[in-house]
Design the sequence.
């Protein structure tokens, strides 16, 4: 799978959630490809943030601070940007936070998607829309095989369930307002992307494994882990972003052929327990780093999740480029560079360039 620089050069893109972790990486990549990026999001959710450290705003055509829960604000921003492609990444993305504030999680993840799609209805330039959700949108039955796009949606906790609802909203708008049978009139193709646990440099979100571990290592503390046996489909953040970009190209060029849901995930052997990740990071970091078990009870999270990405592999050419060891080494390099006061925009762009030219993972 390759991302086409020729396709993205000069392309008008509206990106929600551009100040977040994934959104900052995608903003930098799109700008590097020559796209005209218009961002809409709240202020960066953490301090520090990748958005600020890598000076992401410098590469954007416009940069609006706004709330996806404000339907008029998002409509105004989309219509003003006149985008050809809309990528919706704004979300409340933490399981624990959804237990603390379930109302807010549903308002952002469900009604935020409604508001974004209403904004698309109000625009007359959009050709392709990608709504980003999560692997947790599936009804988790503890299977040892991967979930496919045709499997039932569900979600045990408010976060997971709200993202399943976001998928249902996307499907309903596709059927009701952008129906494939009427594509010749509206010309809008809508797809959704589902990815697993993404990891990468520049993530400082609370209650996330790698940021918690790295911050503790820098402080010379011993971090605590609450669910060491939970298995996740770990992948570097650039892996699903490459899938999203490829899907957007297909939605724009092929229209209805790709207007459906898509899984993006790592090879099955890279679905590893939390304890494996922690041990590997300890080894890579060195400097007497260590971890210990958190004795406090943790809220429910699914113990095993794995996505079947055969459809994306066959039809979009999606295949992971970095194995998990490569991803973890790259992440350690990023955080060490930050600790050593390097130019983090340059470091991040170099990692994007390295990923773009990497061969497929063996």
Sequence:
């Amino acid at each position: 799978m390759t991302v086409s620089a020729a396709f993205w050069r000069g392309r008008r893109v509206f990106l929600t959630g551009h100040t977040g972790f994934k959104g900052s990486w995608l903003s930098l990549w799109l700008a590097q490809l020559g796209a005209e990026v218009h961002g809409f999001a709240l202020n960066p959710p953490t301090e520090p943030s990748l958005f600020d450290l890598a000076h992401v705003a410098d590469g954007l055509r416009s940069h609006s601070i706004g709330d996806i829960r404000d339907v008029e604000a998002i409509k105004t921003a989309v219509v003003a940007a006149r985008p050809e492609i809309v990528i919706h990444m704004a979300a409340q993305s933490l399981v624990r936070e959804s237990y603390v504030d379930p109302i807010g999680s549903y308002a952002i993840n469900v009604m935020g998607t409604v508001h974004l799609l209403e904004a698309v209805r109000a625009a007359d330039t959009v050709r392709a829309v990608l709504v980003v959700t999560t692997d947790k949108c599936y009804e988790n039955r503890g299977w040892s095989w991967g979930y496919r796009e045709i499997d039932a949606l569900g979600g045990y906790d408010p976060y997971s369930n709200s993202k399943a609802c976001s998928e249902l909203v996307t499907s309903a708008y596709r059927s009701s307002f952008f129906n494939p049978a009427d594509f010749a009139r509206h010309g809008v193709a809508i797809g959704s992307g589902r990815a697993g646990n993404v990891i990468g440099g520049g993530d400082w979100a609370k209650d996330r494994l790698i940021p918690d571990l790295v911050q503790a290592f820098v402080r010379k503390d011993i971090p605590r882990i609450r669910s060491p046996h939970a298995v996740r489909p770990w992948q570097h953040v650039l892996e699903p972003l490459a899938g999203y970009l490829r899907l957007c190209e297909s939605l724009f060029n092929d229209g209805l052929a790709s207007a459906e849901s898509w899984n993006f995930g790592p090879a099955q052997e890279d679905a590893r327990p939390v304890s494996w990740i922690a041990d590997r990071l300890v080894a890579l970091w060195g400097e007497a780093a260590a971890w210990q078990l958190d004795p406090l009870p943790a809220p429910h999270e699914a113990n095993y999740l794995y996505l079947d990405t055969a459809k994306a592999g066959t039809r979009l050419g999606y295949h992971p480029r970095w194995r998990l060891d490569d991803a973890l080494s790259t992440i350690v390099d990023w955080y060490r560079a930050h600790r050593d006061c390097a130019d983090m925009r340059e470091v991040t762009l170099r990692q994007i360039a390295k990923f773009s030219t990497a061969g497929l993972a063996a």
About this structure: The mean pLDDT is 93. Residues 348 and 354 are 10 Å apart (CA to CA). DSSP finds 14 helices and 13 strands in the chain. The longest strand covers residues 189-195.
